[in-house]
Amino acid sequence: MTTPLLWHFPISHFNEKVRWALDWKGIPHLRRALAASYLPRAWWASGQGSLPILFLDGRAIADSTRIIATLEERYPQAPLYPADVEARRRALALEDFFDEELGRGLRAAMLGPVFTRDPVAAIGMLATGMPPGSARMMQSIAPVFRAFYRARHDINEATVAAGRTKVAVALDRIEAELGPSGYLVGDRFTVADLTAAALFGVLLFPPELQYRPAAPLPPEILAYREELADRPALRWVGEMFRRHRGRSAEVAA
Fold it and tell me: Phi and psi dihedrals of 63, rounded to 5?
């Protein structure tokens, strides 16, 4: 059996979701950070144009939800799905909610203002951990890359405003769903907690987050985080990282 291989972007909330699942289950795996020119390779491997992509037992699996579902089946130890049928339904529904309602909205709310003021700073952050020279290449064509990124991810003035609303709704949902145990479903860590915390990780940047930009975070992101600092849900995200992020299961090539 070959070692699982993850194609990923180091600074990406959906990629962090899959890395956390692999690490939570203690699955030794390789990681390969792709450059911004990843699209042809992603389409060739999986028939779609986004990361992460996990190569497992000879298959290329795309989409964080599908990857985690496959890991649950292939590596049932340290489960992320509750055993109880109703609890599992709730956990999967929350995973879907945060994926669909928070993921894109948070990207727009965070990066839209940075791309508007300083696309070079936005590119420097996105290029964290990419192959050498990626940041320089992207920054050399900053106006073109900014237009491409904004079009690809539908980032504009309207979606930035809508994204901030979606972030607030997601924080409300965490606070409403949290039980006495401190978890979203039942009394232990599940895919619901992992998804919510991983997606917010790129806003909070807790110490346990494995990939961090070399330069200070852009002031727009720092200001936005400060606006939300008093939210119990954001403090809960930090607690989930402290309790459960653990150590990486990545192995050397």
Answer: 80, 125
Specify the pairing of strand 30-33 against strand 5-8: parallel
Q: Which amino acid is at 79?
A: P
Does this model's pTM top 0.85?
Answer: yes
Please list the residue range(s) of the chain that carry CATH number 1.20.1050. 85-244
Whether domain 85-244 has CATH 2.40.160: no
Q: At what angle do helices 191-204 and 157-177 cross, to 10 degrees?
A: 130
State both tokens at 77: 């130890």
Edge-to-edge strands of the sheet including 5-8?
30-33, 5-8, 53-56, 59-62
Class of domain 5-74: alpha beta
Q: Which pLDDT score is estimated for 35?
A: 83
In single-letter form, the type of residue at position 133 comes to G
CB atoms within 10 A of CB 148: 13
Residue 2 exposed, middle or buried by CB count within 10 Å (0-12, 13-18, 19+): exposed
Q: Yes or no: say if 169 and 196 are a contact pair by the CB < 8 Å rule.
A: no
pLDDT digits (tens, 9 = 90+) for 111-129: 999 989 899 998 888 888 8
**Inter-residue contact 50 to 8 (CB < 8 Å):** no
- The answer to whether 210 and 248 have CB atoms below 8 angstroms apart is yes
Locate all alpha helices (DSSP H) within the chain, ordered by sequence. Answer: 13-24, 39-46, 64-74, 85-97, 104-117, 119-126, 134-140, 142-152, 157-177, 191-204, 219-227, 232-244
Residue ranges, CATH 3.40.30.10, the chain:
5-74
